[in-house]
Design brief:
Chain A has about 750 residues and is an alpha+beta fold. Chain B is about 35% helix and about 15% strand. Classes of the chains: A alpha+beta (about 750), B alpha+beta (about 160), C alpha+beta (about 290).
Chain lengths: ~750, ~160, ~290
């Protein structure tokens, strides 16, 4: 099937000129008349009972307009997993207990931020300190203090997968190995700190501008925590300065802003500081992973026993999803007959972990892919060959998950072998240099309806006007990854209207059709794209009668919608402009506007995802054996993202993913002290790669066509954050002999492994 | 500790503002002049999102006191484009080369690049990477930003010759 | 945290600045680049009611080099300007290197060399090179001025011998002699936006026979203050520097440091790196001194 011209092009982002000129408005740029400023008081202790809170002094401070504590609020617990109400374990403001350093205890509204901050310091909180737990091992030990009374053993969720005869496979296997791995906490480090502005209107209605990637989820959970109908809450679009999973829940400041705006009758803004973000913000789950694998003599993977303890921190957040997906990511790349997964989400007294680009996959893949490299070495096989023996292919089944409708994994392996010069460089090894490989598979959106929405997962509304322009309204959320452009490309491709003639209204929960679950799990292009196509199809149906009557067409004819024209495919001379066609259709409908809605919900696609992407990455590194410093010389990537809608955007996702993956592997790490306080709360000490740290890259798209995706597209970008860590870790081993099983790879660990320091 | 009346010369415009002496230039640009293109990503001088040009030098406006900018020439991102529908070559190159994703680092990145190109009109790739070392970006992986700066350098050089 | 409140004074002359200092005695701080001071005030609770800005003081940004006088760096001369000054680049490569790789371009455009020293951070990047070059500070107060050798300047983390009412007017660095090589190496996990986990600066001056006439080695970020490595210097002076000797001297530097464990690196790692970097610096210094034009 041939795609329209606009598909696969490198179209510059339509929002880029506003962003490059400073015209784009982000949440903190909003200043409303009479606006107040909010600040949160947070717990200084990791685990404590709140015995008394006295806000009198704070209230008395001139300029303070309101002070709230948990007892003042409706105290409705929330969490993204509405499907399992017991998993909803968070309150906007703590009531009885605080569970991590930074847990929100009170909020102040004042005339200016400094007064609000001073007022926070005047709030007296008496705590009874409780023993705190900072590792999963301590948390699940017998007699450990309970963080939530409802979760004995501090395990909030257990996920099991089991198929095939594991014991028999391990017994008959030629080669069995077991390893344990540990991965650490890192942060999204989006450049825009979280902010929100709330304004109350008509008594109990509230509008919230917020830096979020899930406007619909925020709308619903804000309504439930405020005790208001959903329809009373409107979440509005502004530019969002990155998210990567870190902005996909209702957050305490959003609740407090709305609650205080309703109480004071004045608009109110919260803006977090970078230190707030680094010390208290969401992060990627640290995990302890045990993995045991069995292989045949020929290198066929026979069985895997995969056991994961996820360090969830103080609350569930998106931890349940990560617990589920970790197990799925343990068996998505390779076809093998027996698998057992045990994932346990464990509470600790640390800032909650949640979704972060890859949703459990970077951790699972670091373990699984590193183990593949270990096994290849012991089996005497080339690591790429070992993968080719076991790789999933189109039509293969991921047991209990789905049948893969398109898969370019083997092609990715072959291509990355080629472009990286794998065989030659491995044969002709230079001291201090090494090549390593890591692979990934990822989802294109989720199927499992944990949010328990009653609506379709994605929706789009298209209107066309008699001047030949169109309007696309949807709740899809551009946080920098590009759907504001990509969805217009899809509409343009389907309806033939020029992209610059499409006005977009996105992410306004009051003006866009219900619903869109938001930006996560690489779902937007596929799901919202499909909704756009369906809506456009309905518009075409409204326009077709005009041509059929105008040209007296035989009903067997097909119409084409291209280049702002509608014409008969077999006879393009029979044509009229889209504008004229809409005008005539409007006349024929006696003035009823041409509006259509499209929806998408994955059906009959299992419980995980409607489509899967695949890819392989090779890292080439140099390790300085004296300093232990690793320099990534070049990254090679071959991946299968279906048909890329916007090539430049896909490249941008890939390159951004490498930055994040490289930081995860080599330098980023949130460090906590013995009391659970974060030590690195600046970008000086939370080290993410700069332009100078980024290696050049070379990449190839493997051509596949995903039947479930719009114009053949599927996931492109989140998955690419997965293979970098195992690839670099493998390359470091090849370069210097240090095999990393515990991220990050620091110069110190390298030198210790080489016996150069103790 | 009274407010001090200062004259800020921003993008060729003169503003008289009474500011508290402890206010940073970033705060005053954003809150008083409402030039919100200057972003605050860390307020710690590490991320570069608040970069402006002060007498032609790139500085972190979150670590510059507004009173210290009195009567000095300030360029912010709003002052770069010659007209609303005509972008500066750097802005144009950032748009064309996909160097803008979430856009939060973009204003500071472009101003840092401008400072770099003014001091070194034909930088090598490594010089560009070093020159942008004070500007963090989490979306792009920097490669497209580097490409954009290279393209803009060529464009600017061609403009000077022609 | 919010910035504490203060008044900013912007004197035009050094005399005015000194007057302001003594008038406000307690609760006054000098403001130059502001990159350290404002961070400490906003993040670390440092308070001052008055800031005296040096940024409009005439002549304080001067940087000059003459063969007979050496280098004079004005008290408000900024890191970037020092780093790209032709005289610095030619005669003081270790200092030029430190000034052009530390922190970020923006911080280097704002921060001053004097500020970097006066803050007395153990990790100050310009301290080790300036120690190796034998720099002195010229401190002025209302009663007069005095010259302080940099090696006598630091007292501990954040502490120096500078009196509260003194201002660093200039940093004087003697001209390096003939057959001299110098270098600075730093190590951190990332290229920029970083603080050195270890920094080593060195200078080797050879006599006509190729023996070491003078050696200076200084370390940053591995002790409460930047420190000289006297043992290594003595091992080398008067000797014909072969590779083995350089290695031994570099290794001996470990005994001059007292590193700590912190977020940036462990003490064990820092000790190991002192040796590695000192050896690299010495080799580079020797190569430069032997090839030595300057």
């Amino acid at each position: 099937m041939k795609n329209p011209r606009i598909i696969g092009q490198s179209i510059p982002r339509l929002d880029a000129p506003d962003k490059a000129t400073g015209r784009a408005i982000y949440t903190d740029d909003i200043k409303l008349p009479g606006m107040l400023y909010g600040k949160l008081l947070r717990s200084p202790l990791a685990h404590a009972r709140i015995k008394r809170i006295d806000v009198a002094k704070a209230r008395a401070l001139p300029g303070v307009k309101d002070v709230i504590i948990g007892a003042d609020t409706p105290q409705v617990k929330y969490g993204n997993w509405r499907l399992v109400p017991g998993s909803q374990d968070e309150l906007p403001l703590a009531v009885d207990k605080v569970r991590f350093v930074g847990d929100e205890v009170a909020a102040v509204a004042a005339l200016d931020p400094e007064t609000a901050e001073r007022a926070c310091a005047l709030i007296e909180v008496e705590y009874e300190e409780l023993p705190a737990i900072f590792t999963v091992e301590e948390a699940i030990a017998e007699g450990a203090p309970l963080i939530h009374d409802e979760s004995p053993g501090n395990v909030s969720l257990v996920r099991k997968i089991a198929y095939g005869d594991l014991d028999q496979m391990f017994a008959q296997a030629h080669y069995v190995r077991e390893d344990t791995f540990k991965v650490h906490a890192v942060q999204h480090a989006y450049l825009e700190p979280c902010a929100c502005v709330a304004q109350a209107e008509e008594g109990s209605r509230v509008t919230l501008w917020t830096s979020t990637q899930v406007p619909y989820i925020v709308q619903c959970l804000l309504a439930s925590t405020l005790g208001l109908p959903e329809n009373n809450v409107r979440v509005m679009k502004v530019a969002v300065g990155g998210g990567f999973g870190g902005k996909m829940e209702l957050r305490p400041w959003e609740f407090c802003a709305a609650f205080l705006a309703l109480r004071t009758g004045r608009p109110l803004k919260f803006t977090l500081t970078r230190s707030d973000e680094l010390a208290f913000g969401r992060r990627r789950h640290p995990m302890s992973i045990y993995s045991k694998v069995a292989f045949s003599k020929e290198g066929k993977l026979l069985a895997k026993d995969f056991q994961v303890l996820l360090d969830g921190g103080a609350y569930n957040a998106m931890g349940p999803t990560a617990t589920y997906l970790c197990g799925t990511f343990g068996n998505m790349l390779y076809n093998f007959p027996a698998y057992r997964y045990l994932g346990q989400h464990v509470y600790t007294n640390k800032p909650p972990a949640s979704a972060m680009r890859g949703f459990g996959a970077p951790q699972a893949a670091f373990a699984a892919e590193t183990q593949m490299n270990l096994a290849a070495q012991e089996l005497g096989l080339d690591p790429i060959d070992l993968r080719l023996i076991n790789a999933m292919q189109t039509g293969d089944e991921i047991p209990e998950v789905a049948t893969i409708s398109s898969c370019g994994f083997k092609e990715s392996l072959t291509k990355v072998r080629q472009i990286s010069g794998w065989d030659l460089k491995r044969k002709d090894k230079k001291p201090g240099r090494g090549l390593g490989i890591g692979c990934f598979s990822f989802i294109s959106g989720g199927v499992f309806n944990w949010f328990n929405t009653k609506y379709n997962f994605s929706a789009a509304e298209v209107k066309v006007f008699e001047d030949g322009t169109a309007q696309l309204a949807c709740m899809a959320c551009d946080i920098g990854q590009g759907p504001d452009t990509v969805l217009r490309q899809i509409l343009s491709a389907e309806l033939g209207v020029s992209i610059e003639k499409i006005r977009l209204i996105s992410m306004d929960t009051a003006a866009t059709p219900k619903a869109d679950l938001g930006t996560w799990g690489s779902r937007v292009t596929l799901m919202n794209g499909n909704a756009v196509i369906q809506a456009a199809g309905k518009i075409k149906d409204m326009l077709a009668p005009v041509l059929f009557s105008q040209f007296d067409l035989n009903q067997i004819h097909d119409l084409a919608f291209e280049d702002d024209k509608v014409f008969v495919r077999a006879n393009p001379k029979r044509s009229m402009s889209l504008a004229e066609c809409v005008y005539k259709a409007l006349k024929g409908r006696r003035g009823e506007p041409l509006t259509a809605r499209g929806y998408y919900t994955p059906r009959n696609k299992g419980l995980v995802s409607p489509a899967f992407s695949f890819g392989a990455q090779v890292a080439e590194v140099e390790v300085d054996a004296d300093t232990g410093l690793t320099k990534v010389v070049k990254m090679y990537t071959a991946h299968d993202c279906g048909v890329p809608i916007n090539k430049m955007s896909v490249e941008g996702q890939l390159e951004g993913a490498v930055q994040m993956g490289l930081g995860y592997t080599l330098m980023e790490n949130l460090i906590l002290d013995q009391q659970g306080r974060t030590l690195n709360t600046t970008f000086l000490d939370y080290k993410m790669p700069t332009a100078q740290d980024m290696p050049p890259g070379e990449s190839v798209d493997v051509d596949t066509y995903e039947p479930e995706g719009p114009f053949g597209a599927k996931e492109a970008g989140e998955g690419l954050a997965i293979p970098t860590a195992p690839a670099i870790a493998h390359a470091v081993y090849e370069a210097c002999g240090y095999r990393c099983k515990e991220l990050p790879i620091t110069p110190e660990k390298v030198l210790r492994a080489l016996g150069k320091i103790k | 500790m009274a407010k001090q009346t200062i004259e800020l010369r921003v993008n060729g415009d003169r503003y008289e503002v009474a500011v508290d002496p402890w206010r940073t230039l970033a705060e005053v640009l954003r809150e008083e002049l409402r030039l919100t293109g200057t972003k605050i990503g860390c307020n710690q001088g590490d991320c570069g999102a608040c970069t402006v040009l002060l007498d032609g030098r790139s500085v972190s406006s979150c670590l510059t006191l507004a009173v210290e900018a009195h009567q000095r020439e300030i360029t912010t991102i709003e002052g770069l484009a010659p007209s609303p529908d005509h972008l500066h070559p750097l802005q144009q190159a950032f748009v064309q080369h996909g160097a803008v994703q979430c856009g939060f680092c973009t204003p500071g990145m472009i101003l840092a690049a401008k400072h770099l190109l003014e001091n070194n009109p034909q930088p090598t790739e490594q010089e560009i990477r070093r020159g942008l070392g004070g500007n963090l970006c989490r979306c792009t992986g920097y490669n497209k930003i580097v490409e954009a700066v290279q393209a803009a350098a060529q464009e600017l050089a061609a403009g000077k010759e022609g | 945290m919010a910035m504490p409140h203060f008044t900013v004074h912007q004197p035009k002359t050094l005399e005015q600045a000194l007057d302001l200092l003594s008038r406000h005695r307690s609760g006054v701080k000098l403001l130059a680049g502001g990159t350290d001071l404002l961070m400490k005030m906003r993040q670390a609770g440092l308070k001052a009611e008055h800031l005296v800005s040096l940024n409009r003081v005439e002549g304080l940004r001067t940087i000059s080099y003459r063969d007979e006088d050496g280098l004079v760096i004005g008290g408000a001369a900024r890191l970037a300007d020092v780093g790209r000054h032709p005289g610095v680049a030619q005669h003081y490569p270790a200092l030029a290197h430190a000034c052009s790789v530390m922190a970020t371009p923006q911080i280097r455009n704002m921060g001053t060399v004097a500020g970097n020293l006066v803050n007395a951070a153990p990790s100050a990047d310009t301290a080790a090179p300036l120690l190796a070059y034998g720099a002195s500070l010229v401190a002025v107060e209302r009663g007069g001025r005095r010259q302080i050798k940099l090696q006598d300047f630091f007292r501990g983390p954040g502490l120096s011998v500078l009196e509260p009412l003194e201002i660093v007017e200039a940093i004087r660095v003697p001209a390096p002699p003939a057959r001299c090589g110098s270098a600075y190496e730093r190590l951190s996990a990332r290229s920029q936006v970083d603080i050195a986990a270890v920094g080593v600066a060195g200078l080797l001056n050879l006599d006509l026979e190729g023996r070491v006439l003078r050696c200076r080695l200084a370390l940053g970020a591995v002790a409460p203050t930047p420190v000289r490595c006297l043992e290594a210097e003595q091992m080398l002076e008067g000797q014909a520097p072969d590779e083995a000797l350089l290695m031994r001297a570099g290794a001996s530097c470990v005994r001059s440091c007292q590193p700590i464990d912190d977020v940036r690196a462990s003490a064990a790692f820092r000790r190991a790196m002192v040796q590695v970097l000192a050896q690299r610096v010495l080799k580079r210094c020797l190569a430069l001194a032997q090839g030595g034009a300057s």
